[in-house]
Amino acid sequence: MIRSETEIRAKIQDSLEALKDFTAKSQVQPEDFFKVARQATYMTALYWVLNEDVPEEVTKLAVPIVKRMGEAQAQAAKKAEK
After folding, report:
1. Which of 1, 3, 15, 40 could lock onto 7 through a cystine, CB 3.0 to 4.6 A?
2. Per-residue confidence (pLDDT) for residue 38, from 0 to 100
3. pLDDT score for 12
4. 46 with 15: CB under 8 angstroms?
5. Alpha carbon 33 to chain centroid distance?
6. Residue (of 50, 38, 49, 48) closest to 14 by Cα position
7. So what's the pLDDT on residue 33?
8. Rounded Cα–Cα distance for residues 34 and 52 (Å)
């Protein structure tokens, strides 16, 4: 099914909001990173469909997400040691 540019941009906005919501969460689980990675990949593919580069605003979200992932992995490792 081919979507209109308006529909694609709406889906990009939904994915962007999901990524922003994730970075604002105070508590995350390691499993949450599968969801956020899927959203980021989906959004990147939508930009590809539009033949556009991923905006800097989106790529800047990667820094806090990767930081949170490291923190969550460290917490999970501590729990596993107990």
Report:
1. 3
2. 87
3. 95
4. yes
5. 8
6. 38
7. 84
8. 25
Q: What is the DSSP secondary structure assignment for residue 31, as one 8-state letter? A: T
pLDDT in tens, 34-77: 888 888 889 999 999 999 999 998 888 888 888 888 888 888 88
**Amino acid, res. 53:** D
CB–CB of 12/46 below 8 Å? yes
What is the C-alpha separation between 13 and 81, in angstroms, rounded? Answer: 40
Report the interhelical angle of 5-24 vs 62-81 (nearest 10°). Answer: 50
Q: For tokens 């790529």, name the residue.
A: 59
Q: Which of 72, 77, 76, 81 is nearest to 27 (CA)?
A: 72
Cα 68 off chain centre by: 12
Cβ burial, residue 15 (10 Å; 0-12/13-18/19+): buried
Q: CB 65: neighbour CB atoms within 10 A?
A: 19
Lookup result for tokens 């994730």: 22
